[in-house]
Each structure stands twice: as structure tokens, then as C-alpha cells.
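Q: Could you write out the predicted structure for this multi-component system? I'm mainly interested in how the pieces pack against one another.
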Amino acid sequence: MKAFEYQRATDVAGAVASHAGRDDVRYLGGGTNLVDLMKLGVENPSVLIDVSGLPLDEITVSPHGAVVIGAAVRNSDLAAHPAIRNGYPAVAQAVLAGASGQLRNMATVGGNLMQRTRCSYFCDTSKPCNKREPGSGCPARAGDHHNLAILGGSEQCIATSPSDLAVALTAFDAVVHLATGTGERRIGLAEFRRLPGTHPEIETNVADGALVVAVELPPAALAASSRYRKVRERASYAFAIGSIAAALDVRDGVIAESRIAWGAVAPVPWRAKLAEQALLGAPATPASFEAAAGAELERAEPLPGNSYKMDLIRNLTVEVLTELSGGQR
Amino acid sequence: MTTTLNAPPSSTASVGSALTRVDAVAKVSGQARYAGEHPLDDLAYGWVAQSTIARGRITAVEADPIAAMPGVIAVLDHHNAARLSDAGDAELLIMQDDQVHYRGQIVALVLAETLEQARAGAEALHVGYAPAEHDVMFRADHPHMYTPDHVNPNFPTETVVGDVDAAIAAAEVTVDATYSTPAEHNNPMEPHATTAVWDGAHLTVFDSNQGAASVHSSLSKLFGLPPGSVQVTAEHVGGGFGAKGTARPPVVLASMASMALNRPVRVTLTRQQMFAMVGYRTPTEQRLRLAATRSGRLEALDHLAYSQTSRIMEFAEQTAVMSRVMYATPNLRTNHRLLALDVPTPRWMRAPGEAPGSFALESAMDELAQACQLDPVQLRILNEPDVEPDSGRPFSSRNLLGCLREGGRRFGWDDREPRPRQRRDGRWLLGTGVASATYPARNAPTTCTIQARPDGSFEVRINATDIGTGARTALTQIAADALGVGSNSIELRIADSDFGPAMIAGGSMGTASWSWGISKAAAEIHARITAAGSVPAEGLTVRVDTRDEIAAQADVVRHAFGAQFAEVAVDVRTGEVRVPRMLGVFAAGQIVNPTTARSQLIGGMIWGLSMALFEESVMDAEFGDYLNHDLAGYHFATNADVGDVDVSWIDERDDQTNPFGIKGIGEIGIVGAAAAIANAVWHATGHRQRHLPIRPDRILSAERQE
Amino acid sequence: MTSVSQPSRYRLVVNGTSHTVELDNRTTLLDALREQLDLTGAKKGCDHGQCGACTVLVDGRRVNSCLVFAVAVADREVTTIEGLGTPEQLHPVQQAFVDNDALQCGYCTPGQICSAVAALEEADLGWPSAVSQDVSVQQVALDAAEIRERMSGNLCRCGAYVNIVAAIESVAR
């Protein structure tokens, strides 16, 4: 790890001004990902701006029912907050399914959105990686990709986003509030993170130096009975190999609205819009759920080592939606 | 237990009682100091730099810019490293030439004033290479597969009784199946660490190892130092599981650096580095062929095991030896093949041989039970031998059937529905499985010194190690009984090479071997006290060596046995497998301390659970390293993965093992546990899982092929 | 905005004692404790937040001290295993670990104990977990399943989990 200057931010504007979009500056939140990557030599900042002490640690509920979560709110506080536990249980469940008690105490909501992939090639600076070193190549397609993307990848990169929280936030159309050098900006979470395409090194659609200050969950009645389920290779303290955040609004046995987002199958939290469209007006039956998942997976491009995720995410979707619809398989 | 071996049982016997772990308070309060935790003035820190090619030659080590970095004291590499003499371990000949034999090999050590500076130096160091083609992928059909001369530690490679091929050709029922187990890494929680202090004439090292005597011997040979000029201690060790059984690179590097700098040096491996330089369990492929009558009587057993070694040193896992011991059959063949690759050398990992071997053998027995429509416990009872099937030698004691029966009773086995895929609880399919376990009960020569003090207390000095086994506690109890005093009259000192040669904490032989040393020394000190009439003010001291006693042991087969039972829950829609219940029943001779023994056996069984479901070091064909080289990528059980785990043992008195009748319990807990789980997965789902670990994708794949 | 260049001089408050240190910004809280303050109870098992051996409390909350730069917790209250209890006067959780033989090699043990102390507090606060059936329910019944999940951030390679759960259950009661 190379030496760096440490700055403790006391106000948002000062932090953003100090960052000034330089590529060797990083904001430090809980540190659970950034410090890890600095030790691996993947991140090599010259300056760290510690934003964890900024007054962004509140969760507020607006009069019309939106929940605004400060970027410095720790994951454990988010999962323990009544507005989340009652109004968006999938969000609480997603947080609780991630990492460990210790890491949830440290990790911030803002940091979670900036979390980088755990692809083993990305994390090993002695190997090529297009995301880390553009143009150096991607060994994952021919090598190990058992937990990499089946959806949304490119020839250059099939890394997956490891976040659980962001999957649930994506299902409920969360909006990211950013502070930039030119003022405050809002962007939908679905637009915030970008697919790798030919430039996997660019991970978001906002300029360097923009600081996440809050995440807003718009009001959504169906979210109150939402569900997050995660499958991983052991019972706890492991990244997902497939996960789903979902909610259903069923009226007279027919689906009026659905929210489906998948984790660990794509470079970004994957909002399954095609599946949602397929469900609109369909009977709330396992057959509908299976067909909807299949519609979404038509775009999938699995590799030999990760094709199991096709079955996994389809089955998981059917199981969770069936459970949400009150049915039994 | 006979009394001829001088272990006086008394009404106040400490052995067998649940003495609280004697170092528990030090450990729970954070006071116990491990190898990398001894504070020293003027300490320098070393950080290892590793090769980034799997085979080839180092063409340049650009040390100068690193030496100029803040705080960097020196860079050691093959140009300036001390010349070492061979100590019988090619992996310890560190930085002696420009050859690279595997990715992750040590190419330099950066020494600096602080940990951060050493790390930054090692990370910035540029090393040039001339790479050569590498061959790192293990496969049984590799053309360079060969037959080793012997397998670890000194078993014959091949054994043959009768004619297995003819028996299989003529058999009513056969099983012919291929199983595989992946490379696995020991991963003790404490990474290897050494603090070395060279004072110009004498080398003192605080090291994390399973045997200070072995490390002492290696250092003395490597550096050409008189044995009296080297002292190795390992007061507290944060787990070993075989990975610390002999000197590993950190102790060599720290010693070398301390001698080079003339100041204390600490070298601690990172977790990532441990995946390349401290050993691992070889991957295996195993073909099991069983032949039996329709009623389940074995006619033939053929076990052929393939494993890997490195190109610089041979390690041949004794994968098939368990099949020489377990079941009565007129035709029995076991054999081993080995493949040398451009990889780090595999070594011991908890129950080497038996851990992977039992997965194949005990899975195959379950398949045979299915083929014969027999209960798997009954199948094993039916094939219980009177003598060791391979050699015809008698067992000193063998209580496998007692374990199976007692285990079956406690587990509720008799009510088991024999057909698979019959029980369901919500999304979970439920199943149960069983497997046998065994591990050799051996003893090795050990020295021991006992000093009697005039106040009636005794100081016992023995170069044992407590790597978490509870040895410090068990030996205190053994000494108390051997000396006929209470445990509070014993001052036990261990893990110091100055105490002389002793068996390492390994091979399930530690406590057994050390107990013999204590037993013999106790008898001699009693004789001395009796002769003197009383203990003089300066005390009385005896020093013994058990070499002669061990050489004189009768030629019988000494093994512990056990039975493993497991219940699993499988969600075939997601591939998730849970293990809500495990039970192990063991017959392992005298249990010295039921509390610490229970902990150790449960720990072994949890290793079996991890082996069954999680553990797998994934070799990267392109780059030649184990690419999941950290604890986020290499999974073993978390607390949430472990359900009810119960252990019990059969009361077993064996007077042919050692004076206290101890067989050793360090390894047997893992043996068979993975097979019991895999067999339970078959019972739950109807699908055989012959390849470990039983990952979600393997469950899903089995469902898809239905 | 306060800015500090290398090395930084600041105050670490550990187990109620204030230490003025001058350290490299790269120094983690774990390394500061172990290498500078000779508080070696917190262990380094992975150095990447993947094992929990380094768990300490910062302002009463459990964290992985290997992923915290020491400079970032200047002036905050840090509690290590040495601050929970002493050999003469063990914390109830430490005593429960002794009584239940909830350790083997002992290397993960200080982290387990710090984690358990915090996990008990979190349950008292009504924090849900991944195994809570209904996250909206404010009361936590610390059964074995809850303890196992809440303690899963602390790996134990010896496999002392069964006794760790028993130890924590005995204190939770």
C-alpha cells in the first residue's frame, strides 16, 4: 500500500471541493471495500477524504412516504430502522444477508453503492483485468467464472456486482442523491451503475468526485410485503451466487404489479423488467412465474462454469414469487 | 489397562476427569502470546515477495529503488541470501537460485522499520522473469502419472491380496465408481509467523509450529549452526492441522534476516501467501471397485488413488491405506499413482490419506449397500474382519461395530426409511447417512525431564506443543496421575527445543507419545526419590527417552475406530445443503479429558462438514495459482453452517498402545464425516455426489440430469 | 476539513487510556494495537475483514479493526479484549467461554468474545438478523439459530462453534 494523505471532511461542499474529480483521490466511508482493495493494490489513492463523519447519517421519512437514507448511515442502522423493517422488509433482509455483524456496523449506504466486484482476477494485480487495467484482457471467460455474470456482460468483462443492498434498492426504484462540484444531482439507481460494454473500467454514469449523499426510496405500497432471498455457498458470511428482491401486488388472483431484481447474475443489480412485463395481468401461478423468469433469461449468455445460475435464478424467482403470492408449490 | 506399564489408576485419577483447559483464561483474556506477538526493541519487519510466474527463471530483481524507499533496511533475494544446507525439504531452500518452480514461490524478502514500509517495499519490488511453459492441472489421465516408491509416511504404494479382477468378473454385485476430492488448504486461524533474534552467536526464534524439535533440527541443518546455538519455542500456536508440522518458510526467512541484519526480525505470512507456501491437501481422484455376494458379503475391494506432488519434492498422499484396514475380503488391492506438476508441494492436512480416502471408500460402501438392498450399517457389520485384511495381523483393539451400534441407537438409525427422496420439510428434502472412521494409533520416541521439588511438586519439561488440542491440559493430568499427585502440584513446561527431542503435535500421536515420556520419567523419578529417601533441597531430576520402549512394541495393528452419522437438508431448487445434525461415536482408547476431547472431535467433524460442502482450492490453469486464495474465496464452515453436533465414545481399554492406553483423537473426527454427509445427500435427493465439495451447482446439475 | 499528511499525530483512546501516537496513515487500528500499543489480544487472521479475529469495539460497536485506519478512529472509544476483563476479573462472556470450553487454539477467541459482547447488545436493541422470520418484529429471542447467524462473522477453524453457541446462550439467559 502506498502512502496517502488523510483528510477528515467536515462538510459536504468541502469534501467535494477537495476531491475536485482527481483520479487519485477517494472518499472513505466504512472502508470495508476500499481498505481491502488498497491492501490488494487494486486501489492506490494519494488522498483519502474520510466522509464517514459527515452529517449524512439520518434516515428520514417524507410527508408523502418516501424514505431518504443518508449516505453515511451504517448498514446495521439501516436494517434496524422501523421505516425500513416495516415499509421495505426486502431492503432490511438484503442488508442482513450481507457480510457480517462487524462489517454491517462499518459499511455505509453510500459505500455500498460504490462497492466493486469481487472477481478474483480484478482483485489480483499480478493478473490481467480489463476493469483494473483497460485493454489488458479478461482471463475469466476461459478461466474461473463460476460466480460471474450470465446477464449484461461483455467480451471485455463479466464481473458481477457483489452488493445485496443495491439489489433491493433497485427493485424499488431508488434514487441516488449526489453532491457534485456543480451542485446537487439526482439519478435513478438503475442508471447510476453502468454495464461494462467496451469500457468496464467505467462503473458509474457520474463524474469522478461526485459524492453520494443520500439514497431515496420512493413510496411503494407493495414493498411492505417484499422479500429478499439469497443463495450462497455457505449459510452465512459469503457473497451471493444468486439472489432476488421481489414484491407482488396480486388482485383477484391476477398480477397488477411486480418488482423483481436479481443479484450476483450481472455486472449491476439486475432489474428484471422483462419478467415484470410478462407478469402484468398474468395469473399468480408458478407457471406464470417460471415463464416470466424465462423471458428475462432469454437474454442470458451463460458460460460453462456459470450456466447453473440459469436454473438457480429461475427456481429462486419461482419460489419467492410463489411465496409472496401466498401459494404453495 | 495393565499395570505393568506403570500408570497407577487411583481413586483420585486426573486422567478421565474434565479438568478445565489450563490455558483457557490466558486465551480468553488476550494474554496468551503467539509467535508474532513478542515485543522486542529494534524489531525489523520482513514482507515476502512472491513469483508471478509458475515456471521459469528470475532475470532481474530491481532491489535498489526499493532499498531507497522510506524505512526499508534491506532486500534479500537469491543474490544475497545466506547459502543454506539441505535439511531434507526442498521448499526450505529459499532464494538459493534463480529458478522458479511454482507461482507464489518466495523470490525476495523486504526488510523495513515498520510493517507498512516492508509491505510497500515488497509490493513495489519489480522482478523480471524468463517464463517457461507450465503444467499445473491435475488429472488422473495425465500421461506423466507415475507410481511412487512409497506413500506418506512410509507405507507401501501397492498391496495385493488374492485376485481382485477375477473376483469382480465373477461377482453377483459390483460397484465401480470414481470419486474426486479437490485441493484443500489447512488455513489455521493464525497465519505462520516467526520472530527471530540473532545475537551474533545464538539464534532464538518464537515460531508458530507443531513441533519445536523438528523446527530446531531444520534450522540447525539449514544454517549449519550447532544444535546448542538454536532455540525454538512455540508457547501458543493458533492452529496447525498439519501446515505447521515442520519448519515452514517464515522461520527460515526470519532467521536468515535476523542473522543478516543483526537485529530481531519478524516475518508473518499474509493469508493469501499461505495458499502457496505452507502446504495443502493434494487433490485426488479415486476409483473404487467393490464386488460382493447378493447378501452383501465382500468378495473384492480395489482402491486406486491418484494425487499430485510438486516437481521439486515428492509428497505421496497415502489415500488408499484406509482400505487396507477396514473390511474383510478375500481379494484386496490398493494402489497409488502420483503426478508431479509446477505447483507448490502438497503436505499433511488433518487426516492425510484417511480424509480423502474415507470419502471414496465409505461412499462406495453406501453404493454397495444400495446395490445389495442392505442397510449400510448392516453391510459394515457383515464385513467386519477378525484381523487386518491386508496383512493378517491382529488388532490391538477394534470397536468399529460398537461405534456403529451405539451411534445407530443414539441417532435413531433403526427407524430409517431405506429408499431415497422420501422425506420433506417445506423446501428441504431430508436424508441421513452413515460412514465408518479409522485412524492409526501410533507412538514416536520422545524425551522428557521431570524435576522433583522438596515441596512435593514436580516440574515436567517436555517438548510438546498445544496447537489447540488441549495437550497442555491433558499432559498436566497425565503427569498428575503418573506422579501420584494432584494436577495443581504439576508445573508443566512445553514447546521449547531446549527440552529435547519429542514427537510433534501431529499424526494423532502427540499426546500418546508424550504421555509415554512422562510416564517413564515419572517411574524413574519415583525410583530416585525412593532410593534417596526424600527430595533434597536442590531437587532431583531425571531425563528419559522412550526410544527403546517404542522399538520394542509388539507387531499388532493399532487403530482408533469410529462411526459418523449425519442428517442433511437439501433444497434441490437452489442447490443449498444444510447439515442440521451430526453424531460421531468413537473408540479411541483412553480419553484423557472428556471436555477437551469432545471439543477436538467435534472440531474434526466440522472439518468433515466443510470438506463435504465447501472446501476447494481452485487452480487457475492459465496462471498456475490457487485463485480463491483468501477466506472470502476459500470457504469453510461458519457458525451458521453448524447444527447440532454430538460426540460420544466407547469405553475402550487397550494395553498395547502405550502406558495410558491412549490412541489419539486429532484426526479421526474428520475421517468418514464427508462420506456420511454425501451419503445423506443421496438419501435426501436420490443422487450420488461423487465429487467434493457438494456445491449448489452440483446439486442443480444432478437435478437437471434427472 | 482537517488534513493530515504522513505521518499523523493523533490520540487513540483504548480501554479508557489515552495514547498520543505518531503513525503512518496506512497503519490500521489492528496494527496500531498490536505493534504500537502491545495489545496483542486482537488477532490478525486474514487482514481483509474475512475472518473476524481482529474484532474490537469502537464506541461500543463491533468492527473489524483490520479494515479501519487508526487515524480514522482518533479520539473514539476503542475497547479490546484486554479492556473487557482481566485474568483476575473476567467479563461474564469470557468466563462463559472458559466454562463451556468454547475455544481450542484460542486465536479467534478474543474476536469471538468481543463479537459476542456486541451481539448480545444488538439483540437487546432489537436488531433483526438474516434468520429472523419477520424483520418487523422488534423483540429478538436469542435462540441457537439467532446466535449462530449473529456470530458468523467470526470464523473458527478449530470448529469450536458448538461450545461458542452454548457459552453465549448461557450469558443470554
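A: Regarding packing and overall arrangement: Residues 1-11 of chain B have pLDDT under 50 and may be disordered.
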